Amino acid sequence: MHPLARLDQRFLWHPFTQMRDWLKGEPIVIVRGKGAELEDANGRRYLDANASIWTNLHGHRHPALDRAVKAQLGKVAHSSALGLANEPAAVLAEKLVAAANRPRLPGQPKLAKVFLSDDGSTAMEVALKLAYEFARRSGRSAQPRFLSLRGAYHGDTVGAVSVGHIDLFHKAYAGLLFKTDAVMAPYCYRCPFNRARAERADAREYRKCNWECVGKVEQAFARRTRRAEGAGASAGARANAGDGAGYAAMVVEPLMQGAAGMIPQPVGWLRRVAEIARGHGAQLIADEVMTGFGRTGAGGGAGLFACGREGVRPDYLVLAKGLTGGYLPMAATVVTRTIFDAFLGEYGEFKTFFHGHSFTGNQLGAAAANASMELLATEESVRRRGELEGELRAALAGLWKLENVGDIRQVGLVAGVELVRNWRTREAFALAERAGIRVCEAMARRGVLTRPIGNVVVVMPPYCTTARQVATMVRMLEEAIGEVLGGGAGG
Fold this sequence. Notes:
Layout: H1 3-11, H2 19-22, E1 30-34, E2 37-40, E3 45-48, H3 51-54, H4 63-73, H5 87-100, E4 111-117, H6 120-137, E5 146-149, H7 158-162, H8 167-170, E6 181-183, H9 203-206, H10 212-230, H11 235-239, E7 249-252, E8 256-257, E9 263-264, H12 269-279, E10 283-287, E11 316-319, E12 331-336, H13 337-341, H14 363-376, H15 379-397, E13 405-411, E14 414-422, E15 427-428, H16 435-445, E16 448-449, E17 452-453, E18 456-459, H17 467-485
Parallel strand pairs: 3-16, 5-6, 5-7, 7-10, 10-11
Antiparallel strand pairs: 1-2, 2-3, 4-12, 8-9, 11-12, 13-14, 14-15, 14-18, 17-18
């Protein structure tokens, strides 16, 4: 075993990892990377098929990002944002506000202020705290409540876990959490209202339903509204109704739920749900930690964020992962001026937003993020992202012939391949069988790295990935499915 692997096993505790399994074999120790490739301590190279857990946008050791970080190191690495400002953070905030308001969407909120933090969980925590206090200060509710989707994952801090609904991750912490409500997600492939038989296509394309998933959202809001109205007819009585008041906000991952299993939303779902939420006086929190910065597609003038592709702009835009191009931990919560103004007042009123992070506005992270934003805006980057989306779609189409591939779900440069016992019946593998894990282990042996979400294998390449590399990623996935599940062709 390599000395670094031995050192890791002796001292480190890895996230979302059963360490008993981890200690059974020699872990892959990454020592360097270039473009879409990573290299381990033994000199073996791998394709990075999930962009290092959905963070890396432009590839490893991108010259522009490397230069930006090195240049900032020549000035200062970090200074506090408590009582001090700095150039890279101020420039980044301007860029984020401009990007968040593209495309122009008349009638939608305008985002105006940026709160910087450390990662997706903390950015979501910021949004929840702001929405909670805004609902109280605006008189909407004395005890604000949130609505999110079943299967939702929004991070691992206490507030973020409270709006998450994956029992495997969250049930153990139930005693720590505040109560939130869940509503069905638009999981077309396994929707109980979808009357269509399984076909060899994305389930969104052949579904037969009456938008019952949207109806469930309307019903959830209507129930809360009726409870609020039942607490008293006057606005003052409703404001003091506590748990009976309407929702403060609805939390969604736009277009694609990541950790739920790469569950894509049918076209129109987000727009309809946003209209319902706002029709009931609730705000919208968009978790674009995974979907932001061009991940959901490059064309159509929709801008860098998934919400724009449905003509929706949230009240809170939550960003992380790709913000720095995958170089450094940094996150942002972008909000409207109305929300910001609710926290303005004289010092003695103590209306300040009492929340912060030691590394808020970190200069190195902001410098990397500014360089990434500049890259994303180039014609070459937009063109290449569009090409890569098509190349990924074409490569994945070859998997439909496999008996154990039930659904292939792609939104832009995010894809999930759901593994099943038999595609005709949609019969799932039990999680204890580790089907997804074993397939990904077989891919690693073939030089391709990714991680599954249960029985769903994720393919999310860096934007610099070549057509040949994409084809290799998918070919190795096909071979790994054949080795592990042995189902063969099932067309």
